[in-house]
Amino acid sequence: MSDHLLEHVRSYLDRDPEERIAYVRASRWIGHQVAQHAHQRLADLLSRPPSLRTQGLMLVGPYANGKTMIAERFAVEHLRRSHEQRVWMIQTREGVGLGHFYGSILQALRAPGGDLHDVRRKAEQLDHLLATLKPRMLIFDEFHNALRGRSRDVEAVFAFLRRMGRQYDISPVLIGEVAVYDFINATSEMASRFDFFAVPRWQYDEEYLMLLDSLETALPLAQVSNLSDEPLARRIFNLSEGLIGETVAIVTKAVIAAIRSGAERLTKAGLNELHYVPISQRRSAALRENLL
């Protein structure tokens, strides 16, 4: 009855519902083709020879589409294999100017941030840390947060990225929405320093159906749901709008409902009972109207 599940998942069928639900809610890596190719591009960048003009990489795509998970997985895998940390993940702070940007890096490097407006002191502190830690790659998640200021603020951030490569041989990886692509390619000088890797919305095709199949094998329901069959697959795709984060969220909610109800499988009727509103429709959702 449980042959459709991965071997390590089957044991969860014998646990109480709350343990199963906790397992379902846990973050999980989905090694789809785009993610694997992105990891290879990051690995190639990490293994490059020393350079005075380092090349960077943009990892660009819509929100809720797995970009951060791809980068975090790469950073964790590198740390497990390496004796020293050469890859650092940085959550780019909201706010304009070098003060916020330097603060993001200092926080990731576990250093005290100090006065936000003392940019010179932050620069000195950061130079010391980069010279000491010798990172090989800095990954800036949600880099579009650094692009919302005046043009001179953005140029100051770009100037730092250039200096970071020239002075410390560090490759920057910029993760974000399409604004990152637009800003980098606005000048030939910056465009020549960054390669591009797209993490686009999914299409309703064989790869998406394979994604649903892989999700079904990893989620502990006793009965086969056949997620990749029409019309269930089409319904999940339409609700998710081609975003992997939304796809996982929808399937997770449906699995939890199936565990709690005792249905032990996903159905189109069960999906409809979730009353799940796609992201693009939430602004005009009836629930919102009731809040006014």
In short:
With 292 residues, the protein is an alpha/beta fold. 52% of the residues lie in helices and 9% in strands.
Which helices and strands appear, and what pairs or packs with what?
Blueprint: H1 7-10, H2 17-25, H3 33-46, E1 56-60, H4 67-81, E2 87-91, H5 97-108, H6 119-133, E3 137-141, H7 151-168, E4 171-176, H8 178-184, H9 188-191, E5 194-198, H10 206-218, H11 232-240, H12 244-261, H13 268-274, H14 286-291
Parallel strand pairs: 1-4, 1-5, 2-3, 3-4
Helix pairs in contact: 2-12, 3-4, 5-6, 11-12
Describe, in plain words, how this protein is organized in 3D.
The protein has 292 residues and is of the alpha/beta class. It folds into 2 domains: 7-26 and 202-278; 33-198, Rossmann fold. The protein has 14 helices and 5 strands. The chain has a 5-stranded parallel sheet, with helices on both faces. It is elongated, with a radius of gyration of 22 Å. The N and C termini lie far apart (49 Å). The model has no long low-confidence stretch (mean pLDDT 92).
